[in-house]
Amino acid sequence: MRFYDREKELASLQETREIAFNKVSQMTVLTGRRRIGKTKLMLKSCENSPTVYLFVSRSSEAVLCTQFSQTIRDSLGAFVPNGIHSFRELFRLLMEIGKQKAYNLILDEFQELMNINPSVFSDIQNIWDSTKDDSRVNLMVSGSVHSLMHQIFMTYKEPLYGRANSIIRLSPFPVTVLKQIMLDHAPNYQNDDLLALYAFTGGVPKYVELLMDSGAVTKEAMIEHMVRENSVFIEEGNIMLIQEFGKKYGKYYAILAAIASGANDVSRIADATGQKSLGGSLQRLEEDYGLISKLRPIKAKEGSQTVKYEIKDHFLRFWFRYIVKNQGLVQSEKFDALRSIILQDYPTFSGHELEAYFRDFLMQTQPISEIGSWWASSRSSKDKDDQNEIDIVAIYMNEKRVLIAEVKRQRKRFQPELFERKVALIKNRLFARYKIDTACLTLEDM
Predict the structure, then answer these.
(1) 366-445, what's its fold?
(2) Is the pTM of this model over 0.85?
């Protein structure tokens, strides 16, 4: 699959490289979940310029430095003496080379240095501070473990805090790019196939690439490719979460599994996991790990107790719902049966994903300041537990205008009278002075 999107990021990296090569060394940090395309972006930005690419694997410091020394010789033709066994010595040498030659230096999976030698970060800080003004090194560091990269570069007490000239957090492909990818690989694609690509991958570039390169451009073919013997997607969720959580894997895994199964408020999560004190764990999953979202009805106050939780990552939603829930079938390699379950459940699963698709699409293509959903108990209903839920509420910028929309896979399932009552209720409560646009959004509108 060819390189897509990332125009803004490439422009930013090019601007930074120009400063580094012509004025003073620069440090850029790239973060983002596993498979989001950090390495490919860095290498793309360095095309046609001298580059040293160093991947930090879990090995001993001495072995890594020996490997890195040879890579530096091969990449820059520079003299690197034998016997360098510490990253401190190697990094000092790299900065000294930068005084004679402008080049890009990529340190991939940078957070792994914490497992190899935690004092390395202080060494890098001291060497960087004392040499960056006299050298021309365009340093890019990347890492897939969100919590550790946040700790290393954005925690006040850490030595590398404040050293990065820019921090780029990569997001998945937007839905507009997914549409272009589908057009390029299957010009006559069906909208349900586009929705499947969005729902299964969430726009994570590597997942999209694996499907497109294999020719899996229909919903059925995607499921066939993802759910089979030796598929990388089967263990992908475990690998991602073990990397992120480490020893805390079990506790957080249980919470994510509960949310994925429909326990979306604190009390139900507590019942499902047996964990009584959840406030701190939920906050860390949201803020430190970036894996869940706290949802409130649109325009609800920050302190409102009307809160729901959902897993942010679309692939993890798919993985927990089907791979984790059906481990018996996975372990016994009954993949035909599992694929049948997914296909049968797909209309239900994709209904929620279609709502997310339209929220993303509207936010990316319309002048909208805020978008979300809304739910509340009806004050006029005899049944006080009767819920009034609206799928999409989008508030436009700089004007008293709001879009209220219902999302259905098929238009025939739309109930106009019920929807009109919901619109009247939310208009009365929140948008009495707004111009109200209404819509029913379906697969046809993607």
Answers:
(1) Trna Endonuclease; Chain: A, domain 1 (3.40.1350)
(2) yes
